[in-house]
Design goal:
Elements lengths: L5 H21 L9 H14 L5 H8 L6 E6 L7 H9 L4 E5 L2 E7 H16 L3 H8 L3 H21 L3 H22 L11 H28 L13
Antiparallel strand pairs: 1-3, 2-3
Length: about 240
Amino acid sequence: MLITNKRAFSIGAVLTAVFMAVLWYMFTDNFGGTNAFHASDALFNSISKGSTYYIPDVKAGALKFSGDDYTVTVLDKQPDLVNETRDLLVANGIAAQSGDKGLMVSGKLGVLLDAVIRDADRMFHNEGDELKSRYGMEPRKAMYLWWAMLTSLKKELDLQKQFAAASYVDKMVIKRAVEVAYNYYGIEARDVSEEAGIITFALIFYVVYTMWWGYSIFFLFEGFGLEMKAGKKKEV
């Protein structure tokens, strides 16, 4: 394909060269020991963590179930988790007995939820060593066991028509405490107001950089004589 507009092609070539140079630089380890993409992920994860601390509200809401009794058999479809989960529960003073069809757990629902929420709080604040010392396992493994047990517990509570408790376990304890703590473990929380400058720069850079690439393509195509024209309207 021949170049029909050398000026437009030259502008497009320069814009493309600069775009690629910046892209190459963003893949280098000059952003705090990592590349720009990992650094930006870490920044926005830290900021989002600062706005997802729901655990105090979850703990307060769990008080209404503190006197509720429960007896359930959980993890019947995950027998490989039964023994470790039993040890986890027993370490928190919760009655648990393994059997052929899963793990039988009973007691006050408030005691169980309090233990889970306490561990989630420690994980959220990156204090996993406390869980490791208490249970003798990696903190993420402990939180996974809590998650699996609570997921199974929720189903059993539904079957027993304890719908309010089941809903709270699922929507609040699992999703707003356990999962949040697990996902953000190891990430330092930051306040968005403290990072306003770098966030503003990142957003402006993203818009400008995207438009830069668009204009690069535009001028290159114009240099090759390719133009976009509106089609002629056909009268019926």
